[in-house]
């Protein structure tokens, strides 16, 4: 349910924002705040508005595909025991260092869809599923579902697909090195930087400006970038991650992460969702491995679409729930 919409909320001291998130997040959101002026600087809520003029704004809206595409196995929406079994299998694959790259990708993508399913399911069904999971898996899944639900509340279905480009993200190891460098140099926990990156642009998959003009993988407004970019490139992942760390540090991190995140995006839902993802990565060594594979999910009035790498040249795929 982290379905991405990407628009910015007006607010004080911030960076502009944007989900995929799906909800599982699988949807994304985010925005940042920054200075003492009422301008938006970086991410913020799971969403850049669907109407946001991205770099492909002159391109006609693609006709969505009605097929399942490469979605592989879908979550068992009507069978709690089967969905729990599927989710346990996916999480086991993410923990298995011997698993192939293809198996890990499918496991991460399934995890995202399973979280989305649970986030939108009745409470009774959600409890039946998590009750069948091993304690650690249940703990991590509940956290992901809480984040997805928080981000879901920040978005609404759109009538048009977004004018974004969806690209392949930088390699997981490369991004991890940037997060760790920022933690080492600035003192902000790497897991919070990864969580913001996940919510804002699905770790760099989304290319397109927010309605407030936020840009780059961490969704900075040019005015905020001037304060924290230190002469770097707003579109460069490493530069953007370091700038986000500086913004957070300036506003209270690491001592008061909630306050720092609020300045990145003045939304209680955003702060709580990013915190859930960050804490999950702190608890589980394999969580980041799964999150890196989460795709861009977009809430449309017809349902949730997966925006694949190559979109808009590659058609969006409408999820068909079982």
Strand content: 5-15%
Mean pLDDT across all amino acids: 83
Distance between the termini: 16 Å
Kindly provide the radius of gyration, computed on alpha-carbon positions and rounded to a whole number of angstroms: 18 Å
Q: Report the strand count.
A: 7
The percent of residues in helical segments reads 40-55%
- Tally the helices: what do you get? 11
Overall body shape: globular
SS class: mainly alpha
Sheet with most strands: 3 strands, antiparallel
Strand order of the largest sheet: 5-6-7
Uncertain runs with pLDDT below 50, 5 residues or more?
Answer: 5-41, 43-62, 65-69
Order of helices and strands: EEHHHHEHHEHHHHHEEE
Helix and strand topology:
Layout: E1 30-32, E2 42-45, H1 80-95, H2 101-120, H3 123-131, H4 135-152, E3 165-166, H5 172-186, H6 190-201, E4 206-207, H7 222-228, H8 237-250, H9 257-264, H10 268-283, H11 287-291, E5 296-300, E6 303-307, E7 317-318
Antiparallel strand pairs: 1-2, 3-4, 5-6, 6-7
Helix pairs in contact: 1-2, 1-3, 2-4, 4-10, 5-6, 5-8, 6-10, 8-9, 9-10
Features:
single chain; 322 residues; mainly alpha; 11 helices
Tell me what the structure shows.
The structure is a single chain. The chain has 322 residues and is mainly α. The protein has helices spanning 80-95, 101-120, 123-131, 135-152, 172-186, 190-201, 222-228, 237-250, 257-264, 268-283, 287-291; strands spanning 30-32, 42-45, 165-166, 206-207, 296-300, 303-307, 317-318. β5 (296-300) and β6 form a beta hairpin. α9 crosses α10 (268-283). The longest helix has 20 residues, at 101-120. The chain starts with 29 loop residues before the first strand and ends with a strand. The model is unreliable at 5-41, 43-62 and 65-69 (pLDDT under 50).
